Amino acid sequence: MKDIIYHPIGIIHTPFKEPFSAPMQLSKAKDVEGRIEIFKEFLDGLKDLEGFSHIIILFHMHKIKDFSLLVKPELDNEIRGVFSTRSPRRPNPIGFSIASLVGIKGSTIHIKGVDMIDGTPLIDIKPYIPESDSLSNTEIGWLKRK
Amino acid sequence: MKDIIYHPIGIIHTPFKEPFSAPMQLSKAKDVEGRIEIFKEFLDGLKDLEGFSHIIILFHMHKIKDFSLLVKPELDNEIRGVFSTRSPRRPNPIGFSIASLVGIKGSTIHIKGVDMIDGTPLIDIKPYIPESDSLSNTEIGWLKRK
User: Fold this and answer.
1) Does the distance separating the beta carbons of A137 and B80 come in below 8 Å?
2) Per the domain annotation, does B1 fall within a domain?
3) Do A25 and B1 touch (CB under 8 A)?
4) Across the A/B interface, how many CB contacts are shorter than 8 Å?
5) Does B4 fall in a domain?
6) Does residue B28 lie in a domain region?
7) CB < 8 Å to B143, chain A
8) A71-128 pLDDT, tens per residue?
């Protein structure tokens, strides 16, 4: 099948300078602040975003150079299939995070609750919509034993 | 900045044969069934996934050939910034859906609650983890007036 080619639309800045200093997904520091610098040519797309309290951020984990189909999650002693984890060592190293939207000034989006490393290329921003995104009555597989 | 290159890891099959016959994000038919065919070489990555009731699906909206920074959502009369909507006409046409996981047989993942078109390339699967993904006390900007 054909390759899928995306282009960064901005850069995410966080306090985390090294891959392994970022908080793990499940314990992510809700109060860690960061900012997104959107490239000027995409600025118009931010209209109306400020009314949302939370945004979905899709980003390219550019420091990840290889993947593994079986991984050992940090909080677990067993080997798990990578698609049952949030490990960055995935076939396509695409990251997904939900952040609080603090405010937008020009091309800078201030956010809270970041877990990616500084300099991460941004792929997309979507509004968090609880009607479709916030689920209850879920089962969490191997994680429920943690 | 450098292009980001991803490779499809499978194909998503749904009843929707045309781009505009798929249900809109906000009214997505929770009972529509579909299936994902994972390419054989990624099969080991599905280990342990079946214990989760819901999965996050990231996919490439391969029929989208251009984008617009300002769009008119189907349920709205005003022009909105594309990043404040779930419109597919985004700079990087990457789709995000949460589906119920019905079951896995070999390389076939049966899912429910699909809104993408038949033949959509799959980029990633992640487990839905309510601790980080299910938020309450959210604000939904322009959508709250609908």
Assistant:
1) no
2) no
3) no
4) 239
5) no
6) yes
7) 127, 129
8) 998 778 899 999 999 999 999 999 999 999 999 999 999 999 988 999 999 999 999 9
Nearest by CB to B7, from A25, A92, A125: name it. A92
pLDDT tens-place string over residues B48-90: 999 999 999 999 999 999 999 999 987 788 999 999 999 999 9
C-alpha distance from residue B29 to each of B8, B25, B43, B52, B113 (Å): 25, 9, 28, 20, 6
Structural domains of chain B, count: 1
Domain holding A112: CATH number?
2.40.30.70
Q: Give the Cα separation of A97 and A91 in Å (integer).
A: 18
Q: Kindly state the tokens that stand for A71.
A: 């991984």
d(CA A49, CA B81): 7
Residue type, B47: K
Question: What tens digit of pLDDT does each residue of B81-135 get?
Answer: 999 999 999 999 999 999 999 999 999 999 999 889 999 999 999 999 998 899 9
The pTM for the full model equals 0.94
CA distance B34 to chain A (A): 18
